[in-house]
Design a protein that fits this description.
By secondary structure, the protein is an alpha/beta fold. The chain has three domains: about 5-90, MurE/MurF, N-terminal domain (Udp-n-acetylmuramoylalanyl-d-glutamate--2,6- Diaminopimelate Ligase, Chain: A, domain 1), CATH 3.40.1390.10; about 100-305, 3 Solenoid (UDP N-Acetylglucosamine Acyltransferase, domain 1), CATH 2.160.10.10; about 310-340. It contains four helices and 39 strands.
């Protein structure tokens, strides 16, 4: 169990400490559930009422809220960021011991860096290059010719197809698939079906990228699909072939991004956003949940579509009126035309 004094935590966070510097902290918890051995944080004003009744040994907060709490406290500019940084010190994930499990399969033409870890039944293909301290979890597969940068980690059952390039310090969660074929088919009227377009590009992923469980990033049809440095992608996201995702963009769960879409840097896509193919989204765009993006976005800012949930009876009335909008617009134009005469 990790145990740190409040002074050690304050020094780590470069925080101003008020209270018992020698207090031992063994965990992080929410304001309501925290015990005296826990440290908590206040990042949202909506939770201010929980401060005084919190059992936390100490609380991380801003200077402007410090007067609301009489206990031990660490004062910082950004409590949420401080919590994020501190969480690394209390991470309970099992320590990984470098080594190659006897059941792992490694092609004779693969190149492994120092201190590489291969879990049970991991498969490393021909010509694969793994950097130092790479971790490949149980049952994960890295296809021929792929390259993985130093300190990148693959959880169990990750599938990296052939000719994929991955940077340093990335994390791929279980069952994600990188480099599967894009959905490319040409109508074949002579045969009455579809002719598969073989996907000749690859996937290039930068450094410090995190990809969530069961997410799929397709390879390019001709050019590569590109994910730049610092991108974070949640679970169950689909990035189609030839997309280009700019640095530090965040994509939440269940988003679907159609082929050849270019998304800029520092964008955020909330849950279940859908984006059509062959459009561009500029830098610093925030797209709210369940928005459908059907054309390029050229100006930074927040964008939304759809409507919030309302009572079913009211929704049915509004749905009928929505279907009448075109008729109403035409009638209005006729009235305006008549009034101009």
């Amino acid at each position: 169990m990790t145990s740190l004094s409040l002074r050690e935590i304050a020094d780590f966070l470069s925080a101003k400490l008020e209270g018992n510097a020698g207090l031992s902290i063994t965990g992080i918890a929410g304001l309501v559930t925290a015990k005296n051995s826990d440290i908590s944080f206040l990042a949202n004003k909506a939770y201010e009422a929980q401060l005084q009744n919190s059992g936390a040994g100490a609380v991380i907060l801003r200077e402007q809220e410090s007067h609301l709490y009489d206990g031990n406290k660490l004062i910082v500019a950004d409590p949420y960021l401080s919590y994020a940084r501190l969480s690394r010190l209390f991470d309970r994930a099992l320590e990984i011991t470098a080594g190659i499990h006897p059941s792992a399969v490694v092609d004779s033409e693969a190149t492994l860096g120092a201190n590489v870890t291969l879990g049970p039944h991991a498969v490393i293909g021909r010509g694969v290059v793994l950097g130092d301290n790479v971790v490949v979890g149980a049952g994960s597969v890295i296809g021929d010719g792929s390259r993985v940068g130093a300190r990148t980690r693959l959880a169990a059952n990750v599938s990296i197809y052939h000719d994929v390039v991955i940077g340093e310090d990335c994390l791929f969660h279980s069952s994600c698939v990188i480099g599967a074929d894009g959905f490319g088919f040409a109508p074949d009227r002579s045969q009455g079906g579809w002719c598969k377009i073989h996907q000749l590009g690859g996937v290039v992923i930068g450094s410090r990228v995190e990809v969530g469980a069961t997410t799929t990033i397709d390879r390019g049809a001709l050019d590569d699909t590109v994910i730049e440095d610092g991108v974070i992608i949640d679970d169950q996201v689909h990035v189609a072939h030839n997309c280009h995702i700019g640095a530090n963009t965040a994509i939440a769960a269940n988003c679907g991004i159609a082929g050849s879409t270019k998304i800029g840097r520092n964008c955020t896509l909330a849950g279940a956003v859908g984006i059509v193919g062959h459009i561009e989204i500029t830098d610093n765009v925030h797209i709210t949940g369940m928005t459908m993006v059907s054309k390029s976005i050229t100006e930074p800012g927040s964008y939304s579509s759809g409507t919030s949930a309302i009572g079913t009876r009211e929704w049915r009335k509004n749905a009928v009126r929505f279907n009448q909008l075109n008729d109403l617009a035409q009638r209005l134009r006729k009235l305006e035309s008549g009034s101009d005469q």
